[in-house]
Amino acid sequence: MNTLAPEVSAWYQDVVSGSLFEVVAIDEASDTIEIQMLDGAVGEYDSVTWRQLYLAPAEAPEDWRSPYELTVEDSLDSDSVHIPENLSGALSEIEPDLMDFGDDFHIY
To answer: Does a structural domain hold residue 104?
Structure first.
């Protein structure tokens, strides 16, 4: 019987089958644990089934990104934001036209 509590982002190994998976979500409303296998397949266990599994904590495998086709370069700059020096570019160099709406209004 399994005494390990599921944790999001933690990796586990099913001792019987040898398969590795990561817990990706825990839905308390439906009492389910959502998992993603090393090959990218997703699944879920209810809490009763989770306790019946023979699990061991596992380290994330070195090649866990391979099913998602992610490379090392993808992970280096994934959350950075590029802000150009001149936000408006060529638009800032355009001269506005004079719009004549009569004697009282002039918009530049």
So the answer is: no
